[in-house]
Amino acid sequence: xxxxxxxxxxxxxxxxxxxxxxxxxxxxxxxxxxxxxxxxxxxxxxxxxxxxxxxxxxxxxxxxxxxxxxxxxxxxxxxxxxxxxxxxxxxxxxxxxxxxxxxxxxxxxxxxxxxxxxxxxxxxxxxxxxxxxxxxxxxxxxxxxxxxxxxxxxxxxxxxxxxxxxxxxxxxxxxxxxxxxxxxxxxxxxxxxxxxxxxxxxxxxxxxxxxxxxxxxxxxxxxxxxxxxxxxxxxxxxxxxxxxxxxxxxxxxxxxxxxxxxxxxxxxxxxxxxxxxxxxxxxxxxxxxxxxxxxxxxxxxxxxxxxxxxxxxxxxxxxxxxxxxxxxxxxxxxxxxxxxxxxxxxxxxxxxxxxxxxxxxxxxxxxxxxxxxxxxxx
Length: 378
Description:
This protein has helices at 3-6, 50-62, 74-82, 99-109, 124-130, 153-163, 175-178, 213-226, 232-242, 245-264, 283-289, 304-313, 343-349, 365-377, and strands at 67-71, 90-94, 115-119, 135-141, 166-170, 188-192, 206-210, 269-273, 296-301, 318-319, 329-331, 355-359. The protein is α/β, with parallel strands linked by helices. The chain has 2 domains: 3-242, 3-Layer(aba) Sandwich (Aspartate Aminotransferase, domain 2), CATH 3.40.640; 245-377, Aspartate Aminotransferase, domain 1. Strand 5 (166-170), helix 7 and strand 6 form a beta-alpha-beta unit. Helix 2 (50-62) packs parallel to helix 9 (232-242) and helix 3 packs across helix 4.
């Protein structure tokens, strides 16, 4: 069964109790037990909820994983997955990682004794060179946020397996519709489900998925212990949003291709980062491991003044944090997603003040290009 069909037919399309064509919202915190000798499947909402469980199983199925966990935000998913490591452990991390992940790695886990080394993960030899005797994991994003850099997942996974390391991959930009890192040998897949998986800018959520039972047990311990699980109302909304993931991504990707090509021809645009362009340095690797280029791109303008004018002047793309909604969203990484990264760190990574990130929504392509044209060239 193809993944577009799995989005609709994944084992949770019909409520077995009533025949309803969606999972009910189980708005409940606790469950009655029948016997002191035998407890039921559910006991307390912090650990389990039937609506959340349906969502977790659906996302795990889409990623071709066996164990899924739905969290209250993408950062809750990332942080909980990182909590399986201990003081004295070391992680190798892609250098242009999402700013929230950079913040938690450097300011929280660093304080707790878990070290991180940030490297250009597009170069497998750079990843290998950063590995130490106490290295336990490699943490990746591909495409990365916000420069859309591409890491060869199969190559890094082989390196990790040879060294006995865990590989974690943030798959937010691609979603399982376009890319499934577990199939390439990665161990844990992470998502900010707030973005494309939900797709309507009305829920905060995150996911961790794995095939490995031992890793799943370690994640589940953190998940239950800290109480980071997603609520039933939000779980239901994400289940609903997932049903249209294919059509949303296909349409947004079509527009993203056209907009990226248009931007390349603009004299006032200095660079365009999008893995669907033949000029992108990672295009061949990306084509091997993903079935699409996605709906997010970034580009640099000729000046910071023009950048500000664009951000404040667009009518159709909202100037806002986040991405992946039905509406186009344009953001300023240096002041938004990567504001937690020190200026010198941003500069070293190419996250400059003239860089913007565009998440393409479902508006008409011609209207989006006309809006960009007016703001850039008008």
